[in-house]
Amino acid sequence: MKELKNIRDQFPILNQKINGYDLVYFDNGATSQKPLSVIESISDYYKQSNANIHRGVHTLSRTATGLFEKARKTLASHFNVKNDQQIIFTAGTTDSINLVVNGLSKNYLKKGDEIILSSYEHHSNILPWQLWAEENGGKLKVIPLLEDQSLDLSKLESLISSKTKLIAIAHVSNTLGVITDLEKVNSIARKNNIAVLVDGAQSAPHMAVDLTKLNVDFFVCSAHKMYGPTGIGLLYLSEKWLKDLPVSKPGGGTINTVTFEKTEYAENALRFEPGTPHIAGSVGFSAAIDFMNAVGIQTIFDHEHQLVQYAQQKMSEIPEVIIYGKSEHKAGVISFNIKNNHPFDVGTLLDKYGIAVRTGHHCTQPLMQCLNIQGTIRISFAIYNTKEEVDFFIEKLKKVITMLC
Amino acid sequence: MKELKNIRDQFPILNQKINGYDLVYFDNGATSQKPLSVIESISDYYKQSNANIHRGVHTLSRTATGLFEKARKTLASHFNVKNDQQIIFTAGTTDSINLVVNGLSKNYLKKGDEIILSSYEHHSNILPWQLWAEENGGKLKVIPLLEDQSLDLSKLESLISSKTKLIAIAHVSNTLGVITDLEKVNSIARKNNIAVLVDGAQSAPHMAVDLTKLNVDFFVCSAHKMYGPTGIGLLYLSEKWLKDLPVSKPGGGTINTVTFEKTEYAENALRFEPGTPHIAGSVGFSAAIDFMNAVGIQTIFDHEHQLVQYAQQKMSEIPEVIIYGKSEHKAGVISFNIKNNHPFDVGTLLDKYGIAVRTGHHCTQPLMQCLNIQGTIRISFAIYNTKEEVDFFIEKLKKVITMLC
Amino acid sequence: MTIEEIEKEIIEEFEMFGDDWEAKYEHLIDLGKSLPLIKEEFKTDDRIIKGCQSRVWLNSELKEGIVYFTADADAIITKGMVALMVRVLSEHTPKEIVDAKLNFVDTIGLKEHLSPTRANGLVSMINKMKADALSFS
Amino acid sequence: MTIEEIEKEIIEEFEMFGDDWEAKYEHLIDLGKSLPLIKEEFKTDDRIIKGCQSRVWLNSELKEGIVYFTADADAIITKGMVALMVRVLSEHTPKEIVDAKLNFVDTIGLKEHLSPTRANGLVSMINKMKADALSFS
Ligand SMILES: Cc1ncc(COP(=O)(O)O)c(C=O)c1O
Ligand SMILES: Cc1ncc(COP(=O)(O)O)c(C=O)c1O
After folding, report:
1. Which is nearest to A31 in space by CA: A223, A286, A233, A293?
2. Domain B39-294 falls in which CATH fold?
3. Which of these is catalytic: B221, B363, B370, B405?
4. Cβ separation of A275 and B95 shorter than 8 Å?
5. pLDDT tens-place string over residues D93-133
6. Which residues of D are identified as catalytic?
7. What is the pTM of this model?
8. ipTM
9. Which is nearest to A201 in space by CA: A317, A375, A363, A45?
10. Which end of chain A is more exposed for a tag (fewer CB within 10 A), N or C?
11. Does B4-26+296-404 match B39-294 in CATH topology?
């Protein structure tokens, strides 16, 4: 691992004061900051290589096409996917999920079919399924939580019926940090011949994901949470779905031939990438993956894990603090509340000390309803966060508690 | 207008050699180059202000939200739209059109309904309608071309039946540069109570567009063709459709409240912007609009118009050249062929001289079928192109013709 | 007292804290902790003003040409701000309320709470107070 | 001649032009202009190799252990390249064809035409030639 000091130097945004205090950025679950290598890969793209891709005969267009397709290869190899055409560029996790739902609703999902979700899904992995269900007489079922706010997978089999077509599940809960036992979910799904979509928005930034080993049908994530740019994400399709998923969002570039009467779609990833793609975004995404690998994914995971352990230990010594998601098996996220206080107040005061946290329902309102709370305060880590930042946070959290209580 | 030399200085990419020649970038219809102000607005965003937007209590998140909403206001004012909530950020023109089709197909478009397109539509404004028609028993009708390859709008009324629900039409043909008489189209549509979607991908970069005056239902365009970044575009909704268009792509951020049973969607633009938006893209788009306005939209139009007139004049003196789209009323595009030659060969050889042109069907295969050709060579201009570049192009075009013929 | 006089009073009250924002916020929190500003029976869903995160309840009444506001919020800092707003705007005529500039928020250094990108219901509350006043006039 | 010997011959042929790419392309165009390389009856849709822009037709036959290619293209530069490929690869054994490195394309300075991001059908053609050879072996 590069020295941490060294790593922080690569994130210019961290070097700023908020209300007179050094910025402590603990809102990485919402979006991570970007290293210089990513920022510069984008500027360089626009300064040297920008052109529209595919079908271009001129040099710049070939260069840009090459960069875009190289980004696809970088992602394929990062996630251990053999055929790079299984990697589709989208606008982000939410966009990817919608593309899957719209595609599946053409043939695969039928009236009366059932989808299983978990209690801690993000709205982006609920609403598209809910809309499908409402419009097509489908049904959503929900895997309940255990006492420690991890999923009660012992209930999964009993939720499955002959109508169950798909399990859509977060790899890591964005609110709790809890890691889903995907091996178990997937083996149950395989046995029952049910497709699995994994929402990797919160796993891909923090841990190694081997998609060949995982062997699920769909995997989605967003670059902006992985040290990469906004406006770009990934949809991984299994070999089967690369062939079988119908096009639901057509446009320029997705086709072999078009007449006003009839269209023949392309066979590869292109059929799912209509219009001019976010080329600069693909270049930045690729640079972000390179950054993560240069640091080492395991190093990132271990570092964040240590910060979580450390912070959670310190926080549990404060009597007013309630921590949610106490499972041992979790990624770099801690959600908590201060007894009898509104998360918004805590967040507002922490911001005064330059500490950026997220407060509210974190786009997981159904989870909030399960926990019977309005919201939480969430801190979430990235590779550039430090033990000293946690110490400062703990000190100020205590101060905030005296102010509020 | 700033001096042209001065303007070129703002586009670092133009200052490069291709195969030993100065780059002549005549592929602006595919995507334009980006001025430094746009490139730097994006880097600055990532270096100073990056955070996820909406609902954030911390300072950075407020800054980022402010930038995103300011971009929306910039676009609203640029297109003379009163309520900035009518401006929806999407991933681009193609994405915008798909959002409209998917929304309309929920209630507005019914089995047996008819959509009218023009002969020169881009695939992105054909395929989504075609897919809807195929799946829902709808029908597409096509406005034919006149001898001069402008639209035969005298036929429009006869295409309209009681089943006609929408006219989807390009403001400017990307292949021919021909400008559609939208006033005429729109007045016929209004009279018959038919909705109008205008594909402005090729008008917004070149001419002033007043959406209040235009008074259509939907208008779409892409930042990357307007000196802005990739991965972001615009969907304008009339006041009526801002209220009435159903959400077809839900996700985080689009809602007021969610339970597993039922969702209440937000009332404003947010309902159409699921997930984390392309925040950096919105900042760059806004900077691109500022650039265009600093130069002056009319200045851009006039400059490109002069280049078209000049180039067309010179080209018509070459006997082997066939020009398509001879209408007087056109924006900065010329499509042509060399008699008995494949466009690909011409493009390949021009590239050897550093001249970037586009060749092929330009995602308008049905138009190619109308014209009974395989493809064309297309040159398309931006504000930074010069008369000297046109001269160089003409000289090399003649050389290429001798090589090929 | 006129609206401007009350604003002046609040400005002086906050000036005592000088640059000490912690003290300022403690004061704001104390204001928020003062008894609920609205009758429990008025804390109904139709009186909620939805912000992104904290909820505000507002009740507006007109008696003999004078508007009376009572309000509450579930986040204490928002509630402190709400208390200030009620103190400033309540018991004035509709016209006075509609015309109020509310510059004091800026002066006492709490301006961020009035930014439309702030995740609370305060901006909506002020809009609602003015709209209600307008509807009475 | 072996594949490598033909490649060497082509390299020498192009070396004559030195750095003069215009002359090189004129030669390529001349090669392309030579008579159609495929019988008209073979120019059927199922023999088309689709590139993004220019179309290539390929016919492969095996006679007594030797593969014979004939081909055509609708763009003249592509056709010139196709002519070179046929000259190099035709009339060899399946194994020789599958093993061919085709380094000459690089050496004569036409490498860009073999880039997979190039908008022509040439890369697909070479893949098809090798696949057909493999299927014969
Ligand atoms: C007329 C027209 N419509 C639609 C598009 C598609 O735009 P985008 O690729 O940015 O989605 C284009 C761009 O090629 C165009 O020229
Ligand atoms: C678990 C999870 N799923 C989905 C999303 C949505 O991702 P995006 O906003 O990038 O589309 C998020 C991000 O907030 C998330 O944490």
Report:
1. A223
2. Aspartate Aminotransferase; domain 2 (3.40.640)
3. B363
4. yes
5. 999 999 998 989 889 988 888 887 777 778 888 999 999 99
6. 52
7. 0.96
8. 0.95
9. A363
10. C
11. no
